[in-house]
Amino acid sequence: MAVAAGRHAISTRIGGAARSWPLCTLALVLGEAALLYVIISTVAYTEIDYATYLAQKNAVLAGERDYSKIHGPQGPLVYPAGHVWLYAVIDSICQGSVEAAQRLFAVMYVLDVYVVARIYRATFFPSRTFPPVLLSLLALSKRAHSVFALRLFNDGPCALLSHAAVLLFVQSRDAAACVVYSLACSVKMSALLYAPAVYVLLAAKKGHTGAVTTILGCCASVQLLVGLPFLAHDPISYMKNAFDFGRGFKHRWSVNFKWIPCEPRPPQLITPLRDCDGPFASSYFKACTLALHLTLLALYVDRSLRRRNFRGRGGLIAFVRAPRKYGAIPGDRIAPLLFACNFIGVACARSLHFQFVVWYGNTLPLLLWTTAVPRFLCVALVVAVEACWNPWGLNESSSVESSLLLTAAHLILVAALLADSKRKVR
């Protein structure tokens, strides 16, 4: 009798949770839709890069295939070809109307929120580790709403595609996930931050040969198809401009490393991608952030593979030798692995600009709730990170203080992710 009563109580709790997840998701989606309607109706649109995107796609549609010759008001085309085709489709739908484009981006934002909420459910249900009411944290970011609806940056569509790929991986639809993931990379190469975790997922299930075959068949083929007109004309120009890993960044717009010293350049020497000299713009700083990124990534993957609910037989070295011995990564660990890999890349990025918040902002609650960080501190960290992504300085820029706070918050989360607490998500 007691056992039956206990089973009934557990079943009742699970049933209640099963109903509360879709209800909270629906409330989040409807609330976000209403909020975006108000934002678009009452807040003025700010032109930054959208006109440049359209000018660049117009040049391509007019027949230009040399990537080095495609420019707009804000500078050269520095994104892969998927970006060009995406904005060609957007402008075709919107017929030159900025307001229509805002509404379309609002739809993409709501879709992104829905996809991310589905990922949270797949990670935490049926446990009560993350109450679905906390999905409301996903609506916290003022900056994310602005990036989608008031700025029309390509970071929004890239984030939507990246999150859709994560959901497909969680659902074990690997081929479709790889195609969608490659599309995200074709819009903006920031999505490449997920790549190491994508490989781990595929190799654990299919081995190195199977993983490489899947990547070549699904990911590389998409890149080839999307970039074919430019690759056929001048492959060197396309690869150099679309995937420029050595590109500079303006210190003025850095959100995370404003505290790194930088000597302002004279006005005549300022370029679209560089405004200063010194430590921030140095190759040494670039090398240090890259080395830190690779080190933290290796440590995280090694510790993750040793966790009990990965069913592993050793760390990273053992995985490299025989990945298939691990078997498929458990479904509730797929999103944390992918999101953590992306987050480590963001935390080590040489410079983060305001629009980059959508790369990882709504994944932070999920990552924090898979660590041993006290729940009140989890909420405090989410709020602190959001505060840092809004201007603290003059002329709509960040400040030394805000970037120091953001760096500190990132370090705390990195440390929490690396802590080998042997915790299971469920």
Folded structure, characterized:
The protein is mainly alpha-helical and 426 residues long. The protein has one domain (7-418). It has 15 helices and 4 strands. It has helices spanning 2-42, 50-61, 81-94, 98-124, 142-151, 155-170, 174-187, 195-233, 235-242, 283-306, 316-321, 331-347, 364-369, 375-388, 400-418, and strands at 71-72, 75-76, 263-264, 276-277. It has a two-stranded antiparallel sheet. It has a two-stranded antiparallel sheet with strand order 3-4. A hairpin with a 2-residue loop joins strand 1 and strand 2. Helix 4 packs parallel to helix 6 (155-170) and helix 6 runs antiparallel to helix 7 (174-187). The longest helix is centred in the first third of the chain and has 41 residues, at 2-42. 41% of the residues are buried. It is an enzyme of class 2 (transferase). Its EC number is 2.4.1.258. Keywords: Endoplasmic reticulum, Glycosyltransferase, Membrane, Transferase, Transmembrane, Transmembrane helix.
Describe this structure in a few short sentences.
It is a multi-pass membrane protein. This protein is mainly α.
